[in-house]
């Protein structure tokens, strides 16, 4: 964009804002307005993919964007194209995204218009976020949380530049429960974040009166410690001065701020939901009265800027939009051969290292192996922190899996969160974006469901949709499984649901040694990892699980994800005679299998998958080819499970090597684990059930 021209004043007026800023805002308003008009005029092309524009919101968005610095962070919403113009993005760059072109700077044609992923020198960092309205509040707050933590540890460069996180929200999104979780943590930890709420009184076709009894400013009063401001979002001067005050408040580290900006909606909700479909003439006329462009024009003329200067700047804006549109229209489409790149960022952990059985090592239970692994990580990585429900303080987790850590490393690094699983999961995306490395815990697998939205929308898609710019390093520990009387809300298995989420890794250790090696590999993996830890194996107190207690590996021990382990070998003679089978399992299934094969000496191999995604398919196929008889064993209810899926894949891809149908065994297809221990046993697999099915498989 050409530099704006200085205006010669007709009279001396002391302006509260530098005139160059005002003229730049005018030119960018004209740019944004003309972009919206261009999209409407060419809607057959521009509406191929759904988009929104900032029409009516230009003043508040430019006021925010023009004050963001290259050391700041932002989390925007889908209408925020004027913020992007305000930080220096060019119209053609946004148009490349509009048309899903190869050179779209954010995603290479993978995601919607107005969904930035920006990591560029001289610009604020804008991590990927979803379209799930309001969901960006948690990762944004996680960024502020991470910045505050890194500052507290002296891990950021010294200097006067204090970073701000800007979280932009539409007014309709503030009713989302996850926004409240973000607000709660922001005030609890006095985080450096500005929540900008743009209120145009519409949520698609629903009006504010239909959706709420208070606006965001009034709602935020319930969060003690949240500074609140109102600005006229249609007036650039009022918006700029208000945002300047809000940013300074946060840079001074006084706590979070909510800025409520009332502004008109002058465009469509989106290109797919056009204003004429749900808005009457009276409403459109009312909103047009506060159009930000004539308001700024009037102010500039009153303060001595000539009409000619404004017309020249507008002409430059219109010419730029026209040329940029043609450039974007004629740009290349993405290379379809790259459609599947960047599902995951490459991991540095590619081989097993360290000593699994150091000489003289004492045996440890799984829960202690996990504790020691986290301890090693915190000791060696000051950017790492650990949080979740009840993991801080003196308790150290309901299973004592974090015992002593808070006392050893302090409450800034190891701490309790409120009961809000969405924040626990989603904040890790923000932490990752600023360079903090979070280990978090969901107290029981049955409690993970409130966090699934963040796991799916914010964590799993980030690497792919940002073309590798923003992989999310996140280690989520989840105690899982039935362990004798835990009942319906503390015994569930959730791996099949997790495995339908692309872009995350799912790990399931079954011994102390594997726990230590896999937990460390999960931490060093630059992608989201869910570590499932069976409660029944934690202390090896459940009959038959003594082998889960192993000599403790050394501090350097690590196991690459995606490598299965043969726990029990079959005898070669039995294999050669075609008298063997392999049980493919994980978790508690390893120990049920060990007990079940006592009457089939030498005939059964037991494979512990250890990682469910990525799956060690090579190990699976090798064992299938070797034995020709396969059982897939799970603790989950069988219907539509991961075990059924794996068995189906084996049948499909290894059919020519099978001498019998793939046997599948799991829990009964019921919605919950009953409390009574006898009912629980009846529902779950056990060695007797496995031995019976195994005998039928071997005799087939």
From TrEMBL:
<dbReference type="Pfam" id="PF02780">
    <property type="entry name" value="Transketolase_C"/>
</dbReference>
<dbReference type="GO" id="GO:0003863">
    <property type="term" value="F:branched-chain 2-oxo acid dehydrogenase activity"/>
</dbReference>
<dbReference type="InterPro" id="IPR029061">
    <property type="entry name" value="THDP-binding"/>
</dbReference>
<keyword id="KW-0786">Thiamine pyrophosphate</keyword>
<dbReference type="InterPro" id="IPR009014">
    <property type="entry name" value="Transketo_C/PFOR_II"/>
</dbReference>
<comment type="function">
    <text>E1 component of the 2-oxoglutarate dehydrogenase (OGDH) complex which catalyzes the decarboxylation of 2-oxoglutarate, the first step in the conversion of 2-oxoglutarate to succinyl-CoA and CO(2).</text>
</comment>
<dbReference type="InterPro" id="IPR033248">
    <property type="entry name" value="Transketolase_C"/>
</dbReference>
<dbReference type="InterPro" id="IPR005475">
    <property type="entry name" value="Transketolase-like_Pyr-bd"/>
</dbReference>
<dbReference type="GO" id="GO:0007584">
    <property type="term" value="P:response to nutrient"/>
</dbReference>
<keyword id="KW-0560">Oxidoreductase</keyword>
<dbReference type="Pfam" id="PF02779">
    <property type="entry name" value="Transket_pyr"/>
</dbReference>
<protein>
    <recommendedName>
        <fullName>3-methyl-2-oxobutanoate dehydrogenase (2-methylpropanoyl-transferring)</fullName>
        <ecNumber>1.2.4.4</ecNumber>
    </recommendedName>
</protein>
<dbReference type="InterPro" id="IPR001017">
    <property type="entry name" value="DH_E1"/>
</dbReference>
<dbReference type="GO" id="GO:0009083">
    <property type="term" value="P:branched-chain amino acid catabolic process"/>
</dbReference>
<dbReference type="Pfam" id="PF00676">
    <property type="entry name" value="E1_dh"/>
</dbReference>
<feature type="domain" description="Transketolase-like pyrimidine-binding">
    <location>
        <begin position="364"/>
        <end position="540"/>
    </location>
</feature>
